[in-house]
């Protein structure tokens, strides 16, 4: 089935299955950048929250968002100490002024002053809250240091925050049941990696 996707390695694949097989064979982390053939945006680095688009001539260019009027969001405090009506407005301001501004926390800048959050929680409206929505996080299973498989690194972080457990971390990418995995640098390797012949069988 021909449904081309552009991989994070800058290579076009005929479909998602081909991309996953290539990632498995090479033991590399390759994700889908976008649907369709690669158009140059995969190698174009945009700064200040700009987005890459392909213009009429097929050239990859970085553009700033110019309208946040339809975005419904909550106030955020920027790393520049300014309060913005939404994260969209923060990114638009940073892009238009070519300034490096990130979201420091949710809510008015005054509300979280002096509040220190732990366990990957973030301050919102003066209170520390754990990550709640992982729907936008990349779906790649990870094996936690508690030997439990999580559907994404975000889900692991959310669980660690709920348990107030700062020691819960990623042991390696992939299911805890799999023998073939991509180890985290510095993390202990608890099982041997498969040989190339074994990996070829796994990736079929």
TrEMBL record:
Protein's UniProt keywords contain Glycoprotein: yes
What's in the keyword line of the UniProt record?
Answer: Disulfide bond, Glycoprotein, Signal
* A Pfam family matched in the record: Kazal_2
A GO molecular function assigned to this protein is: calcium ion binding
PROSITE patterns, A to Z = KAZAL_2 (PS51465)
Q: Where in this chain does the entry annotate a coiled-coil region?
A: none
Which InterPro entries does this chain map to?
Answer: Kazal_dom (IPR002350), Kazal_dom_sf (IPR036058)
Report the SUPFAM superfamilies cross-referenced here: Kazal-type serine protease inhibitors
Show where the Kazal-like domain sits.
1-40, 63-111, 129-178
Q: What's any one GO cellular component for it? A: extracellular space
Q: Which PANTHER family match?
A: BM-40 (PTHR13866:SF14), SPARC OSTEONECTIN (PTHR13866)
Official protein name in the record: Agrin
Q: Which species does this protein come from?
A: Lygus hesperus
Q: Which gene encodes it?
A: AGRN_6
């Amino acid at each position: 089935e021909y449904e081309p996707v552009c991989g994070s390695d800058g290579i076009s694949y005929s479909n998602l299955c081909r991309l996953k097989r290539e990632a498995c064979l090479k033991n590399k982390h390759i994700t889908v950048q976008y649907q369709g053939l690669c158009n140059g945006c995969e190698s174009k680095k945009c700064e200040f929250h700009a987005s890459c688009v392909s213009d009429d001539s097929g050239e990859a260019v970085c553009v700033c968002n110019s309208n946040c009027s339809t975005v419904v969001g909550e106030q955020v405090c920027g790393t520049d100490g300014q309060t913005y009506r939404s994260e969209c407005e923060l990114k638009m301001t940073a892009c238009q002024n070519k300034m490096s501004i990130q979201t420091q926390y949710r809510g008015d800048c005054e509300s979280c002053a002096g509040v220190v959050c732990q366990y990957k929680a973030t301050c919102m409206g003066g209170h520390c809250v754990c990550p709640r929505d992982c729907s936008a996080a990349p779906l790649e299973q990870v094996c936690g240091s508690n030997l439990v498989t999580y559907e994404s690194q975000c889900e692991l972080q959310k669980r660690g925050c709920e348990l107030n457990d700062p020691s819960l971390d990623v042991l390696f990418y992939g299911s805890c049941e799999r023998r073939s995995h991509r180890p985290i640098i510095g993390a202990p390797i608890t099982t041997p990696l498969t040989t190339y012949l074994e990996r070829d069988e796994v990736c079929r």
